[in-house]
Amino acid sequence: METPDRKTRRKWDEASRTLDFFTFAEDRRLGPHKRRLFEKIRGATLLVAAGTGNDFKFLPPNLNIAAIDISPKMLERAAKKAAAYTGKIDLQEMDVCDLQFPDAAFDTVVTVCTFCSVPKPIVGLRELHRVLKPDGQLLMFEHVRSAIGPLGILMDLMTPIAARFGPALNRDTVGNVEKAGFHLYRVENVYLDVVKAIEARKENDV
Amino acid sequence: MLFAVGDYVAGMLIGIATTLAVRIVVWPGMDMVIAMLLGMAIGMILHFILGLALAPLLGMFETMLPGSLIGMYGGMLFGMRDSMAAGSSTLLAASVVGAIFGAVIVAGVKVYGRVVRGAVLETGR
User: Fold this and answer.
1) Sheet with A88-93, edge to edge strand ranges
2) CB B118 to CB A194 under 8 A?
3) For residue B4, which residues of chain A lie inside 8 Å, CB to CB?
4) Which of A171, A186, A69 lies closest to A120, judged by CA?
5) What's the domain range around B89?
6) Does residue A150 form part of some domain?
7) Residues in chain A closer than 8 A to B117 (CB atoms)
8) CB-closest option in B72, B119, B123 to A154
9) Any domain includes B123
10) Number of independent structural domains in chain B
11) Measured between beta carbons, which residues in chain A are less than 8 angstroms from residue B124?
């Protein structure tokens, strides 16, 4: 039987062929919101689930960033966009649930539409917590289950199909961030209550 | 501006497609519960297909979320109507109602989006 991480890798390897096509308009509509969130990046930074590198263009210039993804095919595509970035983006194949970085290595961790797809989201978030320095910040641009009754039910119904080819639609990522030990200090609704910009901090005393 | 127009066109298309497909499958006198379940299933399948087709132009979230409401709830309503033969006797009339339903849902989603947009938690670092 295929392990969850292999299954995830295979799914996103396949999705890498069409991801840029399907996110063409989304980049234009949500890009300014991502850019606004990324302006808060400071210090040593880890970008989780780099994908095909579509989000690199929203990063502030001249940063030095470690970027990971579980899919080698995604990283192949991301390499071209990383080369065009004005700073430095070091791409590495890695599972967010098993990060090969030491404790307290980063000041900022950034995720974009990542925790809709991680099979064990709390395990992944705890790994992010581990690699963040005390008082380090977690900046997330994620889609979550809607709390609007009819929409939430629909997202539950569609998730078994959607998760076969892409993301789960009904994750409680805001709740999971807290469960993983982070202190939430800002949550912003970007599109309905589904697409959110989430900001959290690793407490000094944790 | 173009995206906003596109959102309405997409919603109307999904509404029209759902109403036409339901009209083909549901006949007057069909058990209403069955008709509503059929309509819901048809609407969900159609919104998924059309949503995927339109997503590269309009965005995945902006097509799929209103589209799912139009497909699922519109499909149920159209199924109920057609099982009772209650109004919209021609395909054209049914299509117009489908388009109006789609546009109204898109408008509702946009209004609600404006209401809930912005910070919902802000405590400062």
Assistant:
1) A88-93, A64-69, A45-48, A106-112, A132-143, A195-201, A183-191, B118-122
2) no
3) none
4) A171
5) 2-116
6) yes
7) 189-191
8) B72
9) no
10) 1
11) 185
**Looking up tokens 């989006």, which residue turns up?**
B113
pLDDT at residue A174 in the model: 96
> Residue A23's domain is classified under what CATH number?
3.40.50.150
Q: State how far the Cα of A153 lies from the Cα of A39, in Å rounded to an integer.
A: 34
Estimate the crossing angle of helix B75-84 against helix B91-116, to 10 degrees. 150
The residue in chain A having the minimum alpha-carbon distance to the alpha carbon of residue B45 is A158
Q: Is A193 in contact with B120 (Cβ distance < 8 A)?
A: yes
Do A16 and A74 form a contact (C-beta atoms < 8 A)? Answer: yes
Model pLDDT for residues A3-37, shown as the tens digit of each residue: 667 888 888 899 899 999 999 999 999 999 999 99
CA-based nearest distance A129→chain B, Å: 16
Is there a contact between A188 and B112 if contact means CB atoms under 8 Å apart? no
- Separation between Cα atoms, residue B41 and residue B35, nearest integer Å: 10
How many domains would you assign to chain A?
1
Q: What is the pLDDT of residue A206?
A: 46
**d(Cα A182, Cα A173) in Å, to the nearest integer?**
12
Q: Containing domain of residue A64, as a range? A: 4-201
Q: Which residues of chain B have pLDDT under 50?
A: none
Question: Is the ipTM value over 0.90, yes or no?
Answer: no
Is A206 within the bounds of a domain? no
Note whether B61 contacts A21, CB cutoff 8 Å: no
Which residues in chain A touch residue B49, judged by CB atoms under 8 angstroms apart? none
3-state DSSP assignment of residue A39: coil
Q: How many CB atoms lie within 10 A of CB B96?
A: 16
